[in-house]
Amino acid sequence: VQLQASGGGLVQPGGSLRLSCVASGNIFSFNVMGWYRQAPGNQRELVATRTSIGYTNYADSVKGRFTISRDNAKSTAYLQMNSLKPEDTAVYYCNYLQSGVNYWGQGTLVTVSS
User: Fold this and answer.
1) 3-state secondary structure string, the chain?
2) For a 10 Å CB count at each end of the chain, is N or C smaller?
3) Is 82 within 8 Å of 68 (Cβ atoms)?
């Protein structure tokens, strides 16, 4: 499975960004797609995940601000990020979990700064 992420950039505090991640390759019908992030000096942490049947999980720090969605027909996951804060600054990584195997996309940098 290969993952192609896009959508990062520079945004002011309070702004919005949308990340996209397209999966390709040997895709199974049940899988989990999500986003993790890693800020300088920090460990990689969960942001949000969504299963192919719609169950979602969010980090407490992003609940109410971020929304993960999917288009299963396109094997694509989206992360809509609203009310962004400077502490959301990080490299965001797309993740795909299938049959117990994790796949990672290249990171996309999100910088929240005035």
Assistant:
1) CEEEEECCEEECCCCCEEEEEEEECCCCCCCEEEEEEECCCCCCEEEEEEECCCCEEECCCCCCCEEEEEEHHHCEEEEEECCCCHHHCEEEEEEEEECCEEEECCCEEEEECC
2) C
3) no
Give, rounded to a whole angstrom, the gap between the first and last alpha carbons of the chain. 37
The amino acid that residue 53 corresponds to is: I
The mean pLDDT value for 13-36 works out to 95
CA-nearest of 54, 70, 57 to 20 is 70
Cβ 23 vs Cβ 2: under 8 Å: yes
